[in-house]
Design brief:
The chain has 379 residues and is of the alpha+beta class. It contains ten helices and 13 strands. It folds into two domains: 219 residues, no CATH class; 137 residues. The protein is 50% helix and 24% strand. The longest helix has 54 residues. It is elongated, with a radius of gyration of 28 Å.
């Protein structure tokens, strides 16, 4: 079995390693209020995110998220301490995406790969580090008044993005997989992969010009972009934000469904006089749950509108598939359907029980009237 040879003379002149971690911190965030609070209490330059190269009509945010600067962070990476610039992006459906960007300049490919893996080992998803929590707490301290129903959800999403902007010599994107071995960077594994797994891992490749390349995997991505264009990284972040939001509501519905079944049983055990009210109250609770989940999942589903930019649209749709966003979204829809059906059944039972009580009341009134009439006649 033959593996591609790493070309030692091919060096990364300019690049970065971006570690993303996303948190669901609230039901929703008032972005206008968040901007005002941040400017008042922290200051600095904040902005509404937009894709830098895509025309606004081709690909745009439904509600542009707010980008906040968080300053520099010291990261213990291996035996060194590196400086990373930190930013946070706020989405109106309650998700924040924190990015730590570690510059990578004048490194040969082996050292660049080592840096990517070292960053992941230092602050990746399987590492108990306070860096992320401190940054989240900084955001919460300032922006809690702009949040609707803040939460402490343990759910998180992570993604590592390796970015190269310039090599030490001209390189075509299609040549890169022959000139450098992307596998250790995309997997974090030092052991050689089977040929089939190598092909599968490199399957999702995208290029628009001769001198760019994007490779997307489940938890990592490689981006060669010589024009300092951040659109692909932003799109990967959006896909991760959507995944986190759908995972949150999938878990929420998993917890609510057993509770819902118990409440239905309790309502049905109630006496006939109390049953209509119990059914109606429970139906209202379920309707509220359905309305809230539907509203937020629709916001997450429509965060990015793709119309004319075919290249970015392909990357976006591929990322959604790789991250299993449609699968989790479909699971949420199925569970919402169960809740809707239960709501409809409870509403029907409540209406039926009220009808029965009304019929009983009418019969009783008729009997009372007959009894009064007979008593009067007897007297």
């Amino acid at each position: 079995m033959t593996y591609k040879t790493i070309m030692p003379e091919l060096n990364v002149q300019s690049g970065a390693v971006i570690a993303l971690r996303l948190f669901d911190i609230a039901y929703s965030i008032d972005l206008l209020k968040a901007e005002s609070l941040w400017m008042k209490k922290v200051g600095g330059s904040i902005s509404r995110s937009r894709l830098s190269s895509a025309p606004p009509k081709a690909l745009k945010f439904d509600v542009p998220p707010v980008l906040l600067p968080l300053g520099s962070v010291s990261l213990p990476v291996g035996s060194s301490t590196l400086s990373a610039s930190a930013t946070a992006r706020l989405y109106d459906f309650g998700v924040i995406a924190i990015a730590l960007r570690v510059p990578a300049n004048a490194l040969n490919w082996t050292d660049y790969t080592y840096l990517c893996n070292a960053v992941d080992l230092a602050i990746g998803p399987n590492v108990d580090t306070q860096v992320w929590n401190l940054l989240v707490e900084k955001i919460r301290t300032v922006l809690t008044p702009a949040m609707t129903r803040p939460n402490e959800s343990p759910l998180q999403e992570d993604h590592l993005i390796a970015v190269v902007q310039k090599w030490n010599e001209p390189v075509k994107g299609v040549e890169l997989t022959d000139l450098v071995d992307l596998i250790p960077l995309l997997t974090g594994d030092s052991r050689p992969l089977s040929e089939k797994n190598r092909k599968d891992l490199l399957k999702q490749q995208f290029s628009y010009f001769e001198d760019d390349l994007v490779v997307v995997t489940w938890d990592r991505a490689f981006i060669y972009e010589p024009y300092s264009d951040s659109d692909v990284a932003d799109i990967l972040e959006v896909a991760n934000a959507q995944l986190l939001e759908f995972r949150y509501y999938d878990q929420l519905l998993d917890e609510e469904l057993p509770r819902m079944y118990e409440l239905v049983k309790e309502a049905r055990r109630a006496t006939n006089l109390l049953a209509p009210r119990r059914f109606a109250d429970l139906a209202r609770k379920l309707y509220t749950l359905v309305a809230e989940v539907t509203e937020l999942t629709e916001k997450a589903d429509n965060v990015l509108h793709v119309t004319e930019d075919v290249y970015l649209a392909r990357i976006y749709m591929a990322a959604l598939e790789i991250f299993r966003v449609p699968t989790v979204s479909a699971a949420v829809d199925r569970k919402l359907s169960i809740v809707r059906d239960t709501y409809a059944a409870l509403y029907a039972e409540a209406s039926g029980s009220r009808g029965e009580l009304l019929e009983v009341a009418i019969v009783l009134l008729i009997v009372i009237e007959i009894a009064i009439a007979l008593l009067r006649h007897a007297v």
